[in-house]
Structures
1.
Amino acid sequence: MQYTAVSEVSTLVSTAFSTKWNMSQLLPYCVAIVALFFLKLSLSSQHRSTNPAEPGQIQPRPWYIGHMTGMISRHTHYFNDLSKTHGVDIAILPMPLGKIYAIWDIHLIQSALRSSAMSFDAIMMQHARGLLGLNERCLEVARTGMLRDLMRLTTSLLSGRSLATISVDFLNHAAPVLNELGARPTYCISDFYDWVQTIATLATTDTLYGELNPFRKDEGLLVDVWLFEAGLRRLAMNIFPAVTARRPSHARDRLVRAITPLFDETISDQSLLPTLTLKRVEVIRSHGITDPEQVARIELALLHGATVNTVPTLFWTLTHVLACPELVRDIRREARTYIQPGAEIVVPFSVLSDSSPLLMSVFRETTRLVNSAMSTRFAMKDALIADEHGREYLIRSGSTVMMPATAHLSTDVWGSDAAEFKSTRFYGWDSRDKPEIKKRRAAYMPFGGGKHLCPGRNLAQYEILGMVLAMVMAFDVEDAHSPNKPVQIPQLDPARMGQGVGKPTFSKPGNRLAAKLSVRTGWENARWRFTV
């Protein structure tokens, strides 16, 4: 596989720098590293395919490293740049250690996602050691069935009534913050993004760990969640992480130490764990992994998956709504039939799932604009994929396939206003028989596609809908620095590799989005409760 040389270099570098050497001792390692690198380059050039069924190449600028440096500097937007510059549907991107297939055409993407030759599990396994620090035995067990079983279980538990229960659990863990704010006439938030991030991350950990949640005792762990997330790309490379990914590596280790006791049967009451986590731990142990630390490392992946895109999407949905007073008014009008002010505000799950078409459209439209997810697969065998005209392209076995969601902003798909926020754009989304809707559904892929749709996509959706609904109904929100003016939507920073949603970027250091919350008349001291 194409990542073998990277692993070899990583091993040599780690060995060399983990021991005290003088320069004469270190020199052979340096020579070996350079020799391995150029040997791989040579082999890659000699064996580069010229099969006419393969797509054409986009040559890197500068030679060999241009695509790699472009991805590092521009992240997911680099693929937008390539699409605009070259205007192709699919291409090979030559890389120092092999090649990548990049696909932009929505029909080719859907064909690739449906192909049995394309594996997402293989991508996860490539990076599991670097990201999570799993030992070799755990990696082998994951490859031979544990990962598959965990995905099946998680998908099952995040659907139907269980989905409703877990969604409501999250919202009820977040509700005390709203209740506390409702007891104050006004409240100023100096950094609205940090405030949203803290509330949502803490509610997520409550949902995953229940009464045993260590994040309630040490809120510094909330910072570690995002230090870990910020270093995912460097951790995944796994090239001397003690130097290249020191802060995220230390944050990961602190998170692992914090949750490890939850999975030690000798010191914790396992029955106190919520069902989702408890059932996942049972699957892990059924595969022979009983070491609490290794269980914790596996479950760290669930915590990451539950926060990495949900939290920024919640922020962007809130700001897109709050920036438009007319939209706030319309959402309140829609919800008024089901939610009235009072001492206790009870919100049935059905209000979120069935009775809020405008709010649902707003969520989907926000996601379309801010989500630049990269669907990545590994070709386990040669595969042919076809466009809408039946033209086939060959994808070679052992290659990485990257499929950016550039169609989210395509004027061909969404119309001339594709770059604008239109709150009602997703009305009629379930009318699958309409050609326009079918085309848009194929292009809309914030949660992946094919066999590997994100199992937590619906949970994230209902968590966000519930939080936005409560904020809009209970509070008037304005820019803290500009009285009587709505908050402004910050600039979106491009999503980095490994992320689906970018964070806000601010023009000056310390210049964060500040918001002033005022309790609406009749909603003072209200207690929020979400029910199944």
Note: Residues 1-47 form one domain.
2.
Amino acid sequence: MVLQLYADPITINCHKVLAALDHIGVDYKMIYVDYLAQQQKLPGYLRINPNGTIPAAVHDDLIITESNAIMQYAADISGNKGAEVYPKDLKQRAIINSWLFWEAFGWARSNYVYLVQNVLKPRRAELPDEAALAREQPRWLALANVLNNQLGKTKYMIGDTVTIADFAVMAPMHVHTLQKLPLDGLPHLQRWIADMDSVPAWRSTSAFS
């Protein structure tokens, strides 16, 4: 059975998975779940993913409900191209896995503050909470400097080619202009963002192209 992906490209985690699948060349079918209409909370979808979040992937009798795990699995079932974005070498995998955890448990949360305040609130005709942005900025800059320092050493997250770590770390910034991220003084990060925005799979799967 072809891999089925329940997703809405408008979300951070769906965009990362869609981009990775397209980049790898995985044969998949996207089943649209309208995030803004809260379709991910409907009983039919909750039978697939009780967490009520998207994306979720179904492949034969396997259900995967975490975006980074979907990328890992997709790479592992995809032969040589999958091995390019998620190498079989255990040391390289450990480095990539570290960045996946870094993104999920820190970077994504910090960027989400900018998404809520500068993107979602204006969409609802609400003003951003400037105090919330001011509180978050030191945390965001600390994380961004870690990223900037890494990208001063490598073109992409772990070397000269795109891996699933790049899709994961880029995803929380997928509307970076609208988020109004404080990118001044982070030249390597700015260069990498421009490079990622030019990756065909990233660009073609964006809901904001």
Note: The longest helix spans residues 90-123.
3.
Amino acid sequence: MSNGISICESYSVPAEAKNLLENELINNKLHSSAPPEIHDAYKYIEFKGTDFPSIPINWRFAESMAALRGFEGAMLNVLLHKKYGIPYQRVVVDTDHASLIFMGFRFSEVNPDTEKLTPYDPEFNQKYFPRLIKSPAFYSPVGQKCSNIYRTKDGRYFHTHASLDPIPTMKALGIDPDMKMRIGTNPCDIYAEKVATYNASDLDKYLNDEHRQAATVCLTTEEFLASPHGKANAHVGLFEIHHIPNPKQKPTWWTPVEGKTTPERPLFGLKVIDLTRIIAAPAIGRTLAEQGASVLRITSPNVPDFAELSFELGWGKWNAHLDLKKEEDRQRLRELILDSDVVIDGYRPGVMEKWGFGKEAILKMFEEKEKGIIYAHENCYGWNGPLSYRSGWQQISDAICGVSTEFGRAMGLDEAVTPVFPNSDYSTGVSGAIGILQALIERSEKGGSYVLDVALNYYSQWLINSCKTYHPEVWSKLWSNFNNFVFHHDDSMLVTLPAYFKMLTENPHSSKALLNPEFWEVRKSEGMGKGVTVRAVRPALTFPEGLVKPGFQVGTRRNGRDKPRWPEDLETQIIE
């Protein structure tokens, strides 16, 4: 308590977001490569919002996301000034609004005046986004408990993961994918019994190395930072940029579109090939699309995908099928990439290399070109250290970096609990977009090509080192506002997400802060069908002077809706 005011009374989410932007991003030595102009540009970022936290999680998710959006606004300001010669613009970030990026999908609606369909309604899949997960076990009661935390023989907590097919992990653990459960059986018990026969380090090697499945021991933050892998990536901020000089490639921006590439849509004309799935990497392209970039996502009719996520992450993107097992489709992708400015690769390490579209192959495509390429790749563990080859997901990153352990401790438990919401996923996406903005600025000054390393762990280590958890008094009050709920290690997001949405909508403080009608808008989405509209979260960056107008040129859509080509008119709604 200071001057008679308690920590809880004086705490301000907007003020803390501002502090994070200034001290843990702009002046963070891990981001010393940012353009020097950003030290002036960030001063035009303003934060507003509800002072006391609204989201009952011990980690400062709201402050973190708002600070990242502020960092994005500052980097965009530098680009606006350098490319268009305009003064730095005021940018307002509402901290309540910014938080909706990782939870707004629950409240989005198709045709809000008539159907009012959400991604949780069966008709949503039947009519707009057919399910694309092919594994018969993915939606089974036992298969759904594959992505969860269980206790090992030596008393550690261990996160297994189903990915998009739980069968390989189930078989590795000796669980029959076709088993029929007896009435009253808890499917978690089936996994718990199997995991309890292994020591944690043995199971870690067994699942990751012998079976190539995503899994990890749940570490503490201290254990992660002291580990060989943590140390190998400690020099990285939210991303790492590598310049590939080439004397043939002079400083340049992307090719402008007359009358369209303006401050109003600052990235208009920027062509982005999106080779991604699920959340983190797709969020990079969507963030760029918000400022006018043209994004063409390439999917495959033969590769499973989480269709419901395309509803949220497909804004501003066309979506075309190519089968990379076919040479003619690989050639088509080469042609598309050669006519692009940015490539985003979000598949597990090694996948795109197999088809000839890894980092080295794409850089080689541009060796003789007058304009370089920006190649961004995203993974879970980071691009340095002994675990960089592994596949992973948000829950895996949360577990290995200690985020899950600290959430459990905050609820008075000596066990790891996966934090609710895909916060690390979306935060990694915003971070990747910021890195691409920086690479675009650098290419305009130095030429050449750029490689951008992005990872879930890069965001997670910034969260634990810089953003951190709430002060104990603030967390105690926040937690008590929600009746001191307790979740346990085997409560996956399938349990916690519905519970959190119920708590947030029923709590007067949180529902008022987060479900403000001003944060929402109704957009057309012709890619979903003629006349279709969607109620969705408005772009989080607001420019009060009105010169910059964030938004999306094209609506969201299912996979394979478009033809695999760049349209002449970048405002074309459907590529026929």
Note: The first helix runs from residue 7 to 10.
4.
Amino acid sequence: MGVVGSHQYPSMESVIYGKPAAEALREEAERLSAKRVYLIASRTLNTTTDEIEKIRKALGDRHAATFDGVPQHTTRDIVTQIARQASEAKADLVVAIGGGSVVDAAKIVLMCMEHEIFEPDGLDGFETTPDRRFGPFRNPKVRMIAIPSTLSGGEYNSGALVTDTSRKLKQIFNHPMMMPRSIILDPAITKYTPEKLWLGSGTRAMDHGIEAICSSRPNVLVDAVCQQGLRYLHHGLLRTKANPDDEAARLSCQLGSWLSAFGLQSRVPMGASHAIGHVLGGTCDVPHYFCTAVMMPSVLRYNRPATETAQQAIAAALGAPGRDASEAFAGFVAELGLPRRLADVGVDEDRFELIGRNAMLSIFTRTNPQPIREPGDVVKILKLAA
């Protein structure tokens, strides 16, 4: 036979685009017969624009409450606080409107509500283990809808990254029903996103696609879809860099983020860029939207011996057929004006050993296509990015 594999379809019902977010959400709330819709929103969108107010007005009496205090890195403290408030509001549908941290918060809030976890240490024992065993979550009775304002793409998978501030570690929590029932793509919502966050989160979306194409367990559908996602993102990000008001380009980026996430949706294992990126955020407070820009060229160089054919496809999707994929991605990052080295984001070599040790706790270190056997292998990658 030669080729052996499988594809898992997520517990997601629809991706909606081409409609204003308020209109699409009202229709979804009606379809789901939701009576108490709890909004977890970006503070910027809630306090400096009228987008959240449009949504509240569209929902009318269905709107239960709004929370807008999610920090840059989602923490146990904040999600348990939100879960208590959402439970007290008798929420029967949670809606995340904002970036990746807001979406991750909403996902884990569903589980905290289900298990009545209202204190940070109540999440102990529910985290996904390094050998990919999920925590003992029940199916949540309350589900969610996501309206993303960035491109990180976390809404397309069933995991959530949550920081344990006491240990300065990002932990993964997973359950198939943490996947949103619906995702609404409205480019108008994204126009308020700061340029660096928009462009950087776009490279984060590319990370999902690149590591899926290079995965140790590839998937023919994922390969094809993720390559198209990279093309959409490559062209769309350059166009929005040149003209931030280009809504067609913004929608192209949103579609690219969706397509690039097909690997995560079907549980194709990711690799070192995800593992190291999680540590840079949780341990070193590097904004998540800069991690890929800084690390991906070095990860591609490290993985080249095991992924030559995949990297040829990646270079072509980045508009550079025949060129080294690492160099093509680094050049693209330079065009976007994003940080390119660890030094640019305040990470010095004296932290490399700690990053290496913490990265070895990640499931994605173990599934990197080029074996990573010890913290020293992670340090080799970090030195390439220094």
Note: The domain at 194-384 is CATH 1.20.1090.10 (Dehydroquinate synthase-like, alpha domain).
